[in-house]
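[job 0417] fold request received: fructan beta-(2,1)-fructosidase
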Amino acid sequence: MCADPNGVMYYKGVYHLFYQYNPKAAVWGNIVWAHAVSTDLVNWVTLQPAIYPTAPFDVNGCWSGSATVLPDGTPAIMYTGIDGDGRQVQNVAYPKDLSDPYLREWVKPDYNPVIAPDARVNATAFRDPTTAWRGPDGLWRLVIGTKDNHRGLAVLYRSRDFQRWAPARRVLHHGDTGMWECPDFYPVATAPGAVLGDVKHVLKVSLDLTRFEYYTFGAYDHATETYVPDAALPDGNDGLRYDYGNFYASKTFLDPAKQRRILWGWANESDSTADDVRKGWAGVQAIPRKIWLAPDGKQLMQWPVAEVESLRGNHVNITDRLVEGGSYFEVQGLMSPAQADVEVSFAAMDLDKAEPFDPAWRGADAQTVCAARGADVKGGVGPFGLWVLASDELKERTAVFFRVFKAEDKHVVLMCNDPSRSSYADHLYKPTFAGFIDVDIAKTGGKIPLRTLIDHSMVESFGGHGRMSILSRVYPTRAVGDKARLYVFNHGESDVKVTHLNAYDMRSAKISNEIDQLIR
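[job 0417] inference complete; emitting structure tokens
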């Protein structure tokens, strides 16, 4: 089983991805740090596990953590170990050979654990240290996730030598949302080339209870060790998300080669455990994404890293094609729409036909609205979008679509992934996923763009130039391989124009266990 991305970093020209992994089965357990390396974030070589249980401080598992590159260039991995008493403790590991760009061997100092839970900490819920940072006072700091009953906590620890750590005077942030896992805390520039004073800090947490992630951003004061989210941002279960679908335990890192922050996330399976055992694997990493603060400062934006486009092959283009209400057409010319990259821009022709936004929905999340107004429910403006991984007779299909509502003073744009008709298979979890996009569609002339990456059981969609991201796992039985089809549909009253559509066959990335493949 493959799970949480860990310790992502760039070292001596090589990208490193570590991740939670069970080498013995396609189910949770026996957790080690698997390790893969790449020079382009697309093609990967898998190496032997980097960190695995060897000592009393991690004898029952090596759980999630992060990498920090120290000032002298030495990478350090901080991870959660499960000790012989079942406590969650924080350990450090260093490369055995700094001249090896692939960092194939790691050493755990005997002085581990470097952070152990004291009497005030829940020792069974104390995990996932972040990348550390060094403050103006020369102290190292990092964040660990924990909980106090139902109260999720991001707790701050500090150290002078990266060996002896102590808790800060106050909790960095908290929320009444249960356990906070896999925290991430990092700065983002408010504008290109911004100076230190023009930086906001992002705090992301993964909620163990809901399996969704939420983030805030705001002001971090190094001197007082306080973090204050921007007042206009929602927090807790109503907060902003990186991805409104199947995307969890995410981790970012700063790529020094291209001066960008890259986001990794884990997509769990939505089929049964028996299916996972039968196929012999479970869990995948989402395509790495560049992440940055939106120009209006209201949210983070994200987009697949540009290197993914190196896999593009055969190309199909459609321009200025009208899709009347209640109609659809097939996008023809791809060799296999089961593995494709589709960029399309829609223009709703008559926004006056938008349905009124039900006031009762104001207290509901977008997923609830999408479940009530799915792809098969006719609307005024929308649903319109793509049917991906569709069978010839359209009995299997996954809908990625927009629906526009009219509120009191503006339009509300809903983006949905609806897999309710994605498969004939039984025992599948097929939830609709959705989010409201912060876009004034009236000012864009009714235009809204969509990009969807399709990779067999993975459907990753980006709406509004990266303002919305939704990942779904689907398991068609007929729309498989060259039998899959791609359609554009419009199930609303208003006509919709496809102003442009570019679809590409995508080659498979090269995944190897031979390091010579990477050198070439």
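[job 0417] notes: DSSP finds three helices and 37 strands in the chain. The mean pLDDT is 95.
[job 0417] exit 0
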